UniProtKB/TrEMBL annotation:
Residues 182-279 form the HTH araC/xylS-type domain. This is AraC family transcriptional regulator. It comes from the Bacteria. Keywords: DNA-binding, Transcription, Transcription regulation. It holds the Pfam family HTH_18. The keyword Transcription regulation applies. It comes from Marinifilum caeruleilacunae.
Length: 279
């Protein structure tokens, strides 16, 4: 299944970077599942249907009474739950720079503890339902009028949700501009010392192996195999130096199928065998 990059696939290739963008999205039973790479923060205002959204380390089921605010950088696996249903929502994308402008105008305390969740669940009410009804596909024919109107609508929904959810929502907003690492890096670095293969880590990132390798090179400037090998061998060296285990005890834990391969890789990197270092 191909990975769709949004909102890029909804925008015309005119070289213009849109910082606020609305799109009417419909998912029918002939497309039950889809994989998405999200490059902008996004409101997903659900109007019809329900579906399950899977993230790297979480999942959430939403119905027509709920909407989501999802942070950029997420790789999503979306699944239509009822094959007889249609999933219909309005997507409202916004850039980090626009959010910073809003937070400069309406300051939020920087002492708030960051929220690292990939999404924020919004319970639709009468106001939000009315708000959704005012959004239209204004990004189809961009104009100064539409841009100004979207700016107003953007401020409106953020101010309303700050009033509705208080500090809980403010915490999530603040986290959107204080990201220490992308979800992609978080998944990789949480599995550095596992015995997972590249294919398995790529799966956790909702990527094909080839896409994973390209993304890894762009992020780290080195191949994932070499990077993981170096990290794991360095950790193995520390364990052996501490005398807590032998090479026979740990080679499987660091991704090697046999002791011989581990010993060869170890010696190539450090110039001595693992048995020598543990003496």
């Amino acid at each position: 299944m191909a990975v769709e990059n949004i909102p890029e696939i909804y925008l015309e290739s005119n070289g213009v970077q849109q910082e606020l963008f609305v799109y009417d999205f419909k998912m029918t039973n002939d497309v039950v599942k889809s994989k998405v790479n999200l490059s902008m923060n996004m409101f997903s205002f659900l109007q019809v249907g329900k579906k399950q959204v899977h993230f790297a380390d979480a999942s959430v089921m939403v119905n027509k009474d709920q909407s989501l605010l999802i942070r950029e950088g997420n790789w999503l696996w979306t699944e239509l739950l009822d094959n007889d249903d249609i999933y219909y929502c309005k997507l409202f994308f916004f850039s980090e720079s626009r959010l910073k402008e809003f937070m400069k105008k309406y300051p939020i305390s920087d002492e708030i503890i960051k929220d690292e969740d990939p999404f924020f669940v919004i319970e639709n009410d009468e106001y939000i339902t009315s708000y959704i009804g005012t959004l239209s596909r204004m990004a189809v024919n961009p104009s100064t009028y539409n841009e100004n109107l979207l700016s107003i609508k953007f401020e409106e929904i953020l101010l309303y949700l700050m009033g509705k959810y208080g500090e809980k929502f403010e915490t999530y907003l603040y986290s959107l501009i204080t990201k220490e690492s992308s979800p992609f890096k978080k998944i990789i670095e949480s599995n550095v010392f596992s015995n997972l293969k590249l294919e398995e880590i790529a799966f956790l990132c909702n990527m094909s192996l080839s896409t994973f390798k390209r993304s890894f090179m762009a992020e780290y400037g080195i191949s994932p195999g070499k990077w993981l090998q170096d990290k794991r061998l360095q950790r193995a060296k520390e364990i052996l130096q501490e005398g807590k285990a032998t090479a026979s005890d740990i080679y499987l834990d660091y991704g090697y199928s046999n002791l011989s391969n581990f010993s060869i890789a170890f010696k190539n990197k450090f110039g001595i065998s693992p048995t020598e270092i543990s003496k």
